[in-house]
């Protein structure tokens, strides 16, 4: 039991870390494409860790499975929405950020 | 305890901030986005207040569907900003009398909040006492459909009136379709069956846990909007009679049951034995009817050619 508790807390903290990283990326990254990258990658990994951590703390198996079912749905939705926004931005001719050469 | 309090204080501040941003920003698109953010924060507030029923409705209707409608209006009008109006709003705020009146009103509200009289009847206990004869085991559904059924009846009528108002004002014409990437229809194809499943789960769950007709209808309406955005479902036309029929049917069913029960001596006073069945019947009818009503807010258009444009323009 202690091990499960420990693993759950570790997963929750990891999830929080990835959310923090994703938010910093959203605020700091230079253009729409890279910002989409942090949102659809870091935040979704954070969500996965968070849900796994909560599922380990859940009272019943059904509740744990319900929590885990949120993840694939969000993954599909954010992949499609991220692609749709990037696709539209590309159509509108928004250029991708390039590192300036020194 | 203190962490929860700090979180709630932060939430309250964010709610006020997003409300101010919604009203004060000069850009229309920003205002709409901030309104959606405001709705999501309000959802969090309702769930912190342990009111999951209202949180569900706020997320689906307040933030989701209303946000979609506002975004749609935004693309229809294409007003880049409202700087002139914004100036006027701020100027009005700067005017001393308005500010004074606002402050007085806020002070009056705050003081009256602190000296609210205790309710004469202990409502939660009254509801709990009568729950056994209501036909459902979830107190919110018992209040909405049984103890205060006429409130819900009037709410349904209000939605119908809103649609009538839209029809009376006139519908926007169908816009040319945006070029679409292939992924969105794929998402719609996989998500819509799940949304239909979730809607009927919400309807069924309403009897014993948070859920019910309004939330289920909002999910169904969102599915219809998603299908339309993916160009798998064409716009609805006001000449399609089935829409009027289905939208009216929910209220008619409700009123019909109410009229049939009038002989029993009260408006919507269900006989305890049949209450569960009658509530399920009303809620099922309302789910379908309200879903079409809500979806019609978004989907009803006059066709650009002025006649039936109903052939599916599927985008394979």
From TrEMBL, chain A:
List, alphabetically, the InterPro entries matched.
Answer: PhaG_MnhG_YufB
Q: Which UniProt keywords apply?
A: Membrane, Transmembrane, Transmembrane helix
Q: What is this protein called?
A: Monovalent cation/H(+) antiporter subunit G
Against Pfam families, the record matches this protein to:
PhaG_MnhG_YufB
**Residues spanning the membrane:** 6-27, 68-86
Give the top-rank taxon of the lineage listed in the UniProt record for this protein.
Answer: Bacteria
Q: Which organism is it from?
A: Geomobilimonas luticola
């Amino acid at each position: 039991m202690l091990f499960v508790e420990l693993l759950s807390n570790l997963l929750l903290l990891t999830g929080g870390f990835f959310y923090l990283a994703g938010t910093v990326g959203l605020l700091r990254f230079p253009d729409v494409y890279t910002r989409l990258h942090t949102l659809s990658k870091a935040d979704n990994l954070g969500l996965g860790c968070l849900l796994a951590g909560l599922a380990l703390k859940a009272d019943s198996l059904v509740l744990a499975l319900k929590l885990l079912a949120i993840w694939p749905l969000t993954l599909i939705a954010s992949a499609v929405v991220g692609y749709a926004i990037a696709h539209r931005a590309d159509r509108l001719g928004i250029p991708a950020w390039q590192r300036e050469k020194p | 305890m203190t962490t929860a309090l700090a979180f709630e204080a932060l939430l309250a501040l964010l709610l006020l901030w997003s409300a101010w941003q919604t009203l004060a920003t000069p850009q229309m698109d920003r205002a709409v986005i901030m309104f959606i953010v405001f709705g999501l924060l309000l959802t969090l507030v309702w769930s912190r207040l342990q009111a999951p029923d209202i949180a569900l409705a706020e997320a689906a209707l307040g933030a989701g569907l209303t946000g979609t409608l506002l975004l749609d209006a935004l693309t229809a009008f294409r007003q880049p900003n409202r700087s002139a109006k914004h100036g006027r709003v701020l100027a009005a705020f700067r005017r001393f009398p308005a500010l004074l009146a606002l402050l007085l009103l806020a002070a009056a509200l705050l003081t009256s909040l602190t000296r609210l009289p205790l309710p004469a009847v202990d409502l939660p206990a009254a509801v709990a006492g009568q729950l056994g004869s209501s036909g459902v085991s979830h107190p919110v559904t018992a209040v909405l459909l049984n103890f205060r059924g006429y409130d819900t009846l009037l709410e349904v009528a209000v939605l119908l009136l809103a649609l009538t108002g839209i029809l009376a004002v006139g519908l926007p014409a169908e816009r040319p379709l945006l070029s679409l990437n292939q992924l969105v229809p794929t998402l719609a194809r996989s998500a819509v069956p799940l949304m239909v499943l979730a809607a009927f789960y919400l309807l069924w769950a309403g009897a014993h846990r948070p859920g019910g007709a309004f939330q289920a209808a909002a999910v169904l309406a969102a599915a219809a909007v998603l299908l339309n955005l993916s160009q798998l479902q064409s716009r609805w036309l006001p000449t399609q009679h089935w829409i009027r029929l289905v939208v009216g049917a929910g209220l008619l069913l409700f009123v019909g049951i109410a009229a049939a029960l009038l002989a029993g001596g009260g408006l919507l006073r269900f006989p305890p034995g049949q209450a569960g069945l009658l509530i399920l019947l009303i809620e099922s009818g309302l789910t379908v009817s309200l879903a079409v009503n809500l979806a019609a807010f978004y989907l009803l258009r006059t066709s650009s050619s002025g006649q039936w444009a109903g052939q599916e323009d599927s985008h394979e």
